[in-house]
Amino acid sequence: MKTAMIYLYSAILVIGSVPKLRRAKKIPESVPYMEKANQIFHTPATVSKKVVKKTKTNVTVVGKEKLIKEPVLFVCNHQGIFDILILLGYLDKPIGFIAKKEIKKIPIISKWMEELKCVFIDRSNRRAAIKVIDDGVESLEAGQSMVIFPEGTRSKSSTVNEFKSGSLRLGTRASVPIIPITINGTYRMLEEDKGKVKGANIQLTIGDPIYPDQYKEMKHNHLAKYLQDIIEQTIEQSGE
Fold first, then answer.
1. Is 95 exposed, middle or buried (0-12, 13-18, 19+ CB in 10 A)?
2. Counting beta carbons within 10 angstroms of the beta carbon of residue 126, is it exposed (0 to 12), middle (13 to 18) or buried (19 or more)?
3. How many angstroms from the chain centroid is the CA of residue 213?
4. In the predicted model, what is the mean pLDDT of the chain?
5. Based on the number of CB atoms within 10 Å of its own CB, is 201 exposed (0-12), middle (13-18) or buried (19 or more)?
6. Residue 31 CB: number of other CB atoms within 10 A?
7. Which keywords does UniProt give here (predicted)?
8. CA distances for 127 relative to 19, 124, 199, angstroms
9. Which of 5, 26, 62, 109 is deepest in the core (most CB within 10 A)?
């Protein structure tokens, strides 16, 4: 019953956000980019935090002082579906995502994602995937921080699957800082118990920014391995 109630509660919050979505779409282009981004981001962040709290989950954020004002590429491991809500609700910085094209079919949520400058990828279409990189670079250059999950799919555990290097081109082409973020515990909220939602203790660990002059000589596969190692070590240090 709890799982059904969480989904119902989430649906009510999403439907209730429609008037704010309409207002977000009407924000004039003359408004400075980050001011506009913060206005738009407030509602998805608030909804996400309310849903997470409803599950009776505790979230601890470590390293928030390492966040910087400029646009960055956040590189995260991907344990579960709730990763996105945790990032939206607790990172305290406007972010967009590289998302599967199937999400475009979800009413209201897909429209909010468009406002957040998310880009949608069709993994079966290589040419379309290249276009996604171009769109993501454009968002970063405009001032929007982006999130990628280089594993490509949920691990559904504390294990970190191999990072694929292709999506890192968003950061290297835009020449923005790259910040690793370790998400730990979200798989316990849904994936661990056959799709039943339950509370968990989550830790979101923000790593040190890696600036362009630090990674410019690195090959993408080496950069991917370096970021994966940071995240794996952070999980190991937590005692998982």
1. buried
2. exposed
3. 24
4. 93
5. exposed
6. 11
7. Acyltransferase, Lipid biosynthesis, Lipid metabolism, Phospholipid biosynthesis, Phospholipid metabolism, Transferase
8. 36, 9, 40
9. 109
Residues in CB range of 102: below 8 A, 6 or more apart: none
pLDDT at 102: 84
2-237 has CATH 3.40.1130 classification = yes
Angle, vertex CA 18, rays to CA 148 and CA 32, nearest 5: 60
Closest Cα partner for 112 from 52, 23, 213? 23
Q: pLDDT value at position 240?
A: 61
Q: How buried is residue 34: exposed, middle or buried, by Cβ count under 10 Å (0-12/13-18/19+)?
A: middle
Mean pLDDT of 36-49: 95
Tokens (6 digits) for 29: 């282009």
Whole-angstrom Cα distance, residue 171 to residue 146?
A: 9
pLDDT above 70: residue 118? yes
SS (H, E, C) the chain: CHHHHHHHHHHHHHHHCHHHHHHHHCCCCCCCHHHHHHHHHHHHHHHHHHHHHHCCCEEEEECHHHCCCCCCEEEECCCCCCHHHHHHHHCCCCEEEEEEHHHHHCCCHHHHHHHCCCEEECCCCHHHHHHHHHHHHHHHHHCCEEEECCCCCCCCCCCCCCCCCHHHHHHHHHCCCEEEEEEECHHHHCHHHCCCCCCCEEEEEECCCECHHHHCCCCHHHHHHHHHHHHHHHHHHCCC
Tokens linked to 145:
């921080």
